[in-house]
Amino acid sequence: MSHTFTHNLVALKTIVRREIMRIVRIWSQTLIPPAITASLYFIIFGTVIGSHLHNVHGYPYMTYLVPGLVMMQIITNSYGNITSSFFGAKFQRFVEEMLVSPTPSWVILSGYIIGAMVRGLTLGVIVLLISTAFTSLHVEHPLITLTTAMLTSMVFALAGFVNAVFAKKFDDIAIVPSFVLTPLTYLGGVFYSIDQLGEPWHTISLANPILYMVNAFRYGMLGVSDIHIGVAYAVMAFFAVTLGGFGLFLLHRGIGMRS
Amino acid sequence: MTQAPALEITDLRKTYSNGTEALKGVSLTVQPGDFFALLGPNGAGKSTLIGILSSLVNASGGTAKIFGVSIHEQRSQAMHLIGLVPQEINFNQFEKPFDICVNAAGFYGIPRAEAMRRAEKYLKELRLWDKAQHPARSLSGGMKRRLMIARAMMNEPKLLILDEPTAGVDIEIRRSMWQFVTGINKAGTTVILTTHYLEEAEQLCRNIAIIDHGSIVENTGMKQLLSKLDVETFVLDTSELPAALSDVDGIELRRVDDHTLEAEMARGHDLNSLFAMLSDKGIMVTSMRNKANRLEELFVRLVENGSKQENAA
Ligand SMILES: Nc1ncnc2c1ncn2[C@@H]1O[C@H](COP(=O)(O)OP(=O)(O)O)[C@@H](O)[C@H]1O
Ligand SMILES: [Mg+2]
Questions:
Q1: Residues B25-59: pLDDT tens digits?
Q2: Range with the largest mean pLDDT of A23-27, A191-195, B113-117
């Protein structure tokens, strides 16, 4: 039992280390572009446009924007990391190194998820650091801030994993981010409070899971939210468990990997 | 106590989702310490069989045990016993050979310090140490094959499986690869090799199975196999040959060049008529030897028989 445990731990560390090495090796693709994007949002929306806007939930627009932009980068980078890394492993076939080994599916999945979370959360921290150049840093509820960031990162890493499992060509990992993820993120309360929307847009927005995550995170940082925090946690937990189970099933069955 | 066979497969079947029946009930036993050849033409089902053993292909039926451990019921335990050198390159081309080996060991739960020690050992033995810190994509084809052997050795498997490892590798590198594999076989590792390169099996392996169209058509010792051969070919070195030669009864003649003649006949056929004909024509035979492609002849024969039976059925 403990023998198996140490084996699995070594395998997990191996995958996580390889994922982190990958992020570092191609830092000019993994770390720099998201940082530039976030900076541009701060400058354009926060400074140029935001200075003409009213306070939102009692905060200057720039300050209100920070949690949204942090979440946006956590979401895109957690998702993007695992799709390109895991699809790359399938494409170059080195996923087989793991599949032929005694490493159980849940260890493989955990390794890739942790790797993607490292990328997502690193970007989150980078965006927070950039934001301090524009506004002062608020963290009302550190624990909520941290758990929301981690859960969101995990959910989108899992979603990216499922995407990568089904992807047969590179286009297949670009479609979902462009046509699903980006619109949902932009409409998920990153830039505004849904209280500012009239009906039916307010109600329609409630169907967007990203809204719950962004609001929970904003509640953690600023103490304001459009959504009840308990509901937000339930939504995140639901997606984490469902996608986690599905991802494990796919890997275990070797869908798209074993013939 | 008798040791369990290194490999014992029973009625293994595979039908791919597109309907291709790649294995039609294969049974095979490989003894510990053996150097075993699985020989067959392209598309025979060799890689499918290897794929099932290494869990990359899901079997449609049948069982397989590695040293008595079922690959289905005790997968993780069975995988600890196997080292796999696949037919297609399957490592990360952007990583370095050293990291590829160390990571591979990690998937078997081998602690990093030990993994680094082994990576150095096997990369050195496979003469890749000077390339250990270069991106893998910069390696030549032969080096990439050797890297996959080094990687397969990282868990020090009891059973090493090589799927056509010398396809497209030049003779020099092929030789050094065989030297290494023969060495670890002598040290106790069971080796299974698939190939359609016939001399390779003949030179290296003690036992052999021949597979064609998803069925085993022959499974025996290499020596027994060769002795079964009912046809032999002699190569004769001669004085200047005429442009055309007609066959002697029961002996098929092939003029290879001005001074070389091949004569193919049933084993034990009388050679006097050949020599009589040659001396009639004033051709002198200076030397004579057995042609070294016996296995190839046998193979063609077995496969032909197999397909005749299949057509008849
Ligand atoms: N993934 C696959 N899907 C469908 N058919 C396959 C697949 N892999 C192999 N085959 C078919 O199965 C048969 C056996 O192939 P394979 O095991 O690769 O033979 P070998 O390794 O002896 O050349 C061939 O007819 C091949 O086309
Ligand atoms: Mg093959």
A1: 999 999 999 999 999 888 999 999 999 999 999 99
A2: B113-117
Residues B216, B278: one domain? no
Query: Which pLDDT band, with edges at 50, 70 and 90, does B2 fall under?
Result: low
Are B231 and B297 a contacting pair, CB within 8 Å?
yes
pLDDT in tens, B141-192: 889 999 999 999 999 999 999 999 887 788 888 888 899 999 999 999 999 9
Q: In angstroms, rounded to a whole number, what is the distance separating the alpha carbons of residues A14 and A111?
A: 8
Instruction: Read off the pLDDT band of A72 (50, 70, 90).
Output: very high
ipTM over 0.90: no
Kindly state whether residue B304 falls inside one of the protein's structural domains: no
Match 């070195």 to its residue by tokens.
Answer: B237
- CATH number for position B276: 3.30.70.1560
Whole-number Å distance between alpha carbons of A22 and A7: 23
Does the beta-carbon distance from A101 to B75 stay under 8 Å? no
- Ligand 2 centre from B196 Cα, in Å? 9
Residue B308 belongs to some domain of the structure: no
Among B171, B197, B221, the domain boundary falls at B221
Element (H, E) at B308: helix B294-312
**DSSP for residue B143:** H
Q: Which residue matches tokens 């798209």?
A: A256
> Residue B22, SS3?
strand
Q: Does B278 lie in the same domain as B146?
A: no
pLDDT of residue B163: 95
Closest ligand 1 atom to the C-alpha of B18? 4
Domain count, chain B: 2
Residues 6+ apart with CB under 8 A from B154: B83, B101, B104, B105, B108, B110, B115, B118, B119, B122
Q: Are residues B113 and B196 in the same domain?
A: yes
Q: What predicted TM-score, i.e. pTM, was given to this entire model? A: 0.85
Print the domain residue range for B197: 7-221
Find out whether B201 and B195 touch, Cβ atoms under 8 Å. Answer: yes
Verify that B38 and B73 share a domain, yes or no: yes
Which residues in chain A are contacts of B112 at CB distance < 8 A?
A: 10, 13
**Cβ atoms of residues B152 and B116 within 8 Å:** no
Asked whether the beta carbons of A60 and A75 are under 8 A apart, the reply is no
Asked if A2 is an interface residue toward chain B (Cβ–Cβ < 8 A), one would say: no
CATH of the domain at B79: 3.40.50.300
Tokens of A225: 């939210």
- B75 contacts in A (CB within 8 Å)? 102
pLDDT for res A230: 94
> Does B266 lie in the same domain as B187?
no
- For the record, the structure tokens of B64 come out as 């397989």
The reply to whether B259 and B204 lie within a common domain is no
